[in-house]
């Protein structure tokens, strides 16, 4: 069980921590220092590097989470409400990420390749809003997952 919990925590830290850094540190600096063409190219490359880690985090979170639920606790009916809530919010986060990855992120890369900075800016803005939602959900999941058993 310690391996599963460790993998679960590492995956959550990578995903949520990456969003926290990108949204609250990188975004304001990039917006202040870079003109739209460079800013859009920067974000396209940042997402190119970060999103494979999110995919890996999703696989680890699902694998380790279900391993803990079923192999350790014996199923969904044996875990507390906080685990159900953590799973639900995690699945919502994954759905939002899938949308980001297959829709605005793909279109952002296409706009950057065409040097269509207006379209790219619109897609980046859409991604920004969705990542803000996912960041809030991720922080809630962390609170529920770590403190929910005590509520």
Automatic annotation (TrEMBL):
Residue ranges of every copy of the Copper resistance protein D domain listed in the record: 45-144
Keywords annotated in UniProt: Membrane, Transmembrane, Transmembrane helix
Q: Which GO terms describe its cellular component?
A: membrane
Which InterPro entries does the annotation name? Cu-R_CopD_dom
* Source organism, top-level taxon: Bacteria
The answer, when asked if Membrane is one of the entry's keywords, is yes
Matching entries from Pfam families are given as: CopD
Any transmembrane segments, and where? 6-29, 50-73, 79-102, 130-150
This protein is called what?
A: Copper resistance protein D domain-containing protein
Source taxonomy lineage?
A: Bacteria, Pseudomonadati, Pseudomonadota, Gammaproteobacteria, Oceanospirillales
């Amino acid at each position: 069980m310690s391996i599963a919990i460790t993998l679960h925590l590492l995956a959550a830290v990578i995903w949520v921590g990456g969003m926290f850094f990108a949204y609250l540190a990188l975004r304001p600096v990039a917006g202040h220092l870079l003109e739209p063409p460079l800013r859009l190219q920067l974000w396209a490359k940042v997402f190119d590097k970060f999103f494979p880690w999110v995919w890996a985090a999703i696989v680890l979170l699902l694998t380790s989470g279900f391993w803990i639920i079923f192999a350790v606790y014996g199923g969904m009916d044996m875990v507390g409400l906080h685990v159900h809530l953590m799973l639900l919010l995690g699945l919502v986060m994954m759905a939002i990420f899938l949308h980001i990855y297959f829709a605005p992120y793909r279109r952002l890369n296409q706009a950057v390749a065409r040097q269509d900075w207006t379209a790219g800016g619109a897609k980046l803005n859409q991604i920004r809003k969705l990542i803000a939602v996912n960041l809030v959900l991720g922080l809630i999941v962390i609170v529920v997952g770590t403190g929910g058993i005590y509520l």
